[in-house]
Amino acid sequence: MSKSTIALVAHDHKKAELLAWVQQHMPIMQRCHIVATGTTGGMIAQETGLQVTRFKSGPLGGDQQIGALIAEGTLDALFFFWDPLNPAPHDPDVKALLRLCSVWNVPVACNSATADLVVTSPRFLSVDYQIKKPEY
Predict the structure, then answer these.
(1) Domain MGS-like spans what residues (predicted)?
(2) What is the pLDDT at residue 89?
């Protein structure tokens, strides 16, 4: 059985919150193939020992690299702890990433409360549940 691929992304002011969330859900995270933007992925790998495929930093193209996985149909969920109070210079990239999740019906959690609900759902990581992908 192949592992579900999830992406972990966090803006600077949300990195500690994402790390704490990952640590809280280690048994689930260990069952996933994790991809992440550069700095976030390095922090998660170093602090948890999880294997993380690291892309570029978000502002340097990492958001688009994750977006490509969504468009290719190979990303199962996005956990993007973004900071709504501090605008980022790559805000258009962030919006494009969230838009792709809606276009391709990919579950996305932007805060720990929603992320908790996603990973504790009986359908998360279930081989019996297949996300319906739209046909355009």
Answers:
(1) 1-136
(2) 73
